[in-house]
Amino acid sequence: MSRERILIIEDEEDIQELLQYNLSKEGMKTFGALTGEEGLKKARKEPFDLILLDLMLPGMNGLDVSRSLKKDDKTRNIPVIILTAKGEESDVVSGLELGADDYIVKPFSPKILIARIKTVLRRKSAEPVNDSLPLRIHDLAIHPGRREVLWRNKLLTLTNMEFQVLHFLASKPGWVYSRYQIVEGVRGDNYPVTDRAVDVLIVGLRKKLGEAGVLIETVRGAGYKFREQ
């Protein structure tokens, strides 16, 4: 790894120091913030390759920080890995819906965390960006490069995770994917999410698609598919 810039937003100083120590050993350049407000200020002022974000922060919590990051053009494309002692399904779903790139529950192994960071960074560098060749199916236009979705020329507002799931399914209409295959396809192997979290995500995606929501079909006992032409 070549001096990637990592912002660590974590209010527990011992964990902050542990993370900075382990990431520095891997050749990464680390920056710390003890509050959500401080982290947002730094993220908007300097460029970062990835953000490690704790959920339980004093003042502005981690989910609000993530929401603000994804709404800002300057920070929306920075990968975010959520660190938290909370492992309830609702927190996993919230993190995914807000566009988190990974989700790790404390306590965690530094080696596993490093591996997950490297995976997210590799995925980011390998992402194809092509504004000129959007995917068009039915009355949907999906632009991978701009992360935009239009339904009958109307721009829809989707989270990063919702966009990835829609693009994944629409890329191969008619193909049936299990919940695990959907998560594996958009996030990579071993992403910590339950079947129920995928169902909740699909419900939210259909709602945002409005009339186009019927294009995502449930295949009983199997998973989901995108309607063929």
Description:
- Helices cover 41% and strands 20% of the residues.
- The protein has 229 residues and is an alpha/beta fold.
- It has 2 domains: 122 residues, Response regulator (Rossmann fold, 3-Layer(aba) Sandwich); 92 residues, Arc Repressor Mutant, subunit A.
- The chain is elongated, with a radius of gyration of 18 Å.
Topology:
Blueprint: E1 5-9, H1 13-25, E2 29-33, H2 36-45, E3 50-54, H3 62-71, E4 80-84, H4 89-97, E5 102-105, H5 110-126, E6 135-137, E7 140-143, E8 148-151, E9 154-156, H6 160-170, H7 179-187, H8 195-209, E10 216-219, E11 223-226
Parallel strand pairs: 1-2, 1-3, 3-4, 4-5
Antiparallel strand pairs: 6-7, 7-8, 8-9, 10-11
Helix pairs in contact: 2-3, 4-8, 6-7, 6-8
- SSE-based structural type: alpha/beta
Give the domain tally: 2
Low-confidence stretches: 128-132
| Rg, Cα atoms, Å | 18 Å
Mean pLDDT score: 85
Please identify the oligomeric state: single chain
What best-fitting shape do the alpha-carbon axes yield? elongated
**Overall helicity:** 40-55%
Largest sheet: 5 strands, parallel
Number of beta strands: 11
Distance between the termini: 44 Å
Using the 3D structure, state the CATH architecture of the largest domain: 3-Layer(aba) Sandwich
> Could you say what the CATH topology of the largest domain is called?
Rossmann fold
- Into which percentage range does the β-strand content fall? 15-25%
CATH superfamily descriptor of the largest domain: Response regulator
Within the largest sheet, what's the order of strands?
2-1-3-4-5
User: Which CATH class of the largest domain?
Assistant: Alpha Beta
